[in-house]
From TrEMBL:
<dbReference type="InterPro" id="IPR000086">
    <property type="entry name" value="NUDIX_hydrolase_dom"/>
</dbReference>
<keyword id="KW-0396">Initiation factor</keyword>
<dbReference type="InterPro" id="IPR042529">
    <property type="entry name" value="IF_2B-like_C"/>
</dbReference>
<dbReference type="Pfam" id="PF01008">
    <property type="entry name" value="IF-2B"/>
</dbReference>
<comment type="similarity">
    <text>Belongs to the eIF-2B alpha/beta/delta subunits family.</text>
</comment>
<protein>
    <submittedName>
        <fullName>Translation initiation factor aIF-2B subunit alpha</fullName>
    </submittedName>
</protein>
<dbReference type="InterPro" id="IPR037171">
    <property type="entry name" value="NagB/RpiA_transferase-like"/>
</dbReference>
<dbReference type="GO" id="GO:0046523">
    <property type="term" value="F:S-methyl-5-thioribose-1-phosphate isomerase activity"/>
</dbReference>
<dbReference type="InterPro" id="IPR015797">
    <property type="entry name" value="NUDIX_hydrolase-like_dom_sf"/>
</dbReference>
<dbReference type="GO" id="GO:0003743">
    <property type="term" value="F:translation initiation factor activity"/>
</dbReference>
<dbReference type="Pfam" id="PF00293">
    <property type="entry name" value="NUDIX"/>
</dbReference>
<feature type="domain" description="Nudix hydrolase">
    <location>
        <begin position="1"/>
        <end position="131"/>
    </location>
</feature>
<dbReference type="GO" id="GO:0019509">
    <property type="term" value="P:L-methionine salvage from methylthioadenosine"/>
</dbReference>
<dbReference type="InterPro" id="IPR000649">
    <property type="entry name" value="IF-2B-related"/>
</dbReference>
<keyword id="KW-0648">Protein biosynthesis</keyword>
Amino acid sequence: MPHVVTVFLRNGGRVLLARRSEAVGTYRGRWAGVSGYVEGDPDDAERDARRELAEELGVREADADLVRAGATVSVADEGREWTVHPFLFDARSRDVDPNEELAAVEWVHPTAIRDRETVPGLWTAYRRVAPAVETVAADETHGSAWISLRALEVLRDAAAEADSRDAVASVARRLRDARPSMAAVENRVNRVMADSETDPESVRRRAEAAIDAAAEADDSAAARAAELVRERGFDRIATLSRSGTVLAALEAAGASVLVSESRPGGEGVGVAERLVRLGLSVTLTTDAALPGLVAGGEADAVLLGADSVLASGGVVNKVGSLPVALAAARADVPVFAVCARDKIRGDGRVLGEDAGRLYDGEAAVGTENPLFEVVPADLVSGVVTESGVLDADGIGTVAAEHAALAAWDD
């Protein structure tokens, strides 16, 4: 039985579908992912997936990150049988260069697969690599902007398959409960449910619109932050952990970067590597050393992500943010949080998450290993969002709007 790869290339919550041209041997004119035969060991099918991305779209390894390799799908159609190896990659842009095997390409919400004439088993293959509630709950690498987009994708896909609003509402509640500390997950899920009608199809359409709006909001917040860095002449930026919005801002600003490793996940290391590949000057340091370096004049400004922003203006972010902010205040270095408005909480709750096992010895040692902490409002120079830098009054207004969204579940 032949083995083939099917690659779903994702950007901003949409995936690329390709219509097969007359130059291919099978399923001419049908829509598919990027596909091709496995030429070597099926256990090493990722190599074939990357080859097809490069050959059919001009997408190289540096242009896309592997998100997930899914369980195989057995397909039988018109006397033919084959095994599909599905893959999901995140693309850094939607710029592609299709070859002669592809008659057309479109960036669409994956739910469009259900309404098109596709190669056999395409929706099943997509669902093998699509995000799930567990994806949202277990992710310890990405920031809440990325995770909240995945939550909206889960809600969208669930609505496409659901036969009642109650079934979709159950998924919505599970998503909110999966990451209670991340305001963007709660606010974005609440908005979809509050703004939709009683049928699942309405939820699907609203979720798709929310995904597009969220991706644009995150990009706009990053652009605003990059503009602020350039306008104020900040040449050296300190940061920690991994915020996709901050990362995009740093890429656009072009300043040199001082980043801490961000234990226990080490996501700061990945940030450093990514920025170096983009040609920026980057220094990696330890979490413990970062405050002293900021206080010692090694940074002109600090950019923090935000898992949430409290109605008071306080910023909830990865542990290590508070000592950096305190050191920055001592050195008169401004601290800005960068995030979409959807990260502003509609209440004053501070919900923590535990970073995992800290001590495995036999002594009766109590431990505290929080993942997040609060940077008080008086240590934050401003919160940079898609609508500009918000002050305390602006944050309070948005918080009230978000509090009202939760009424859908009363």
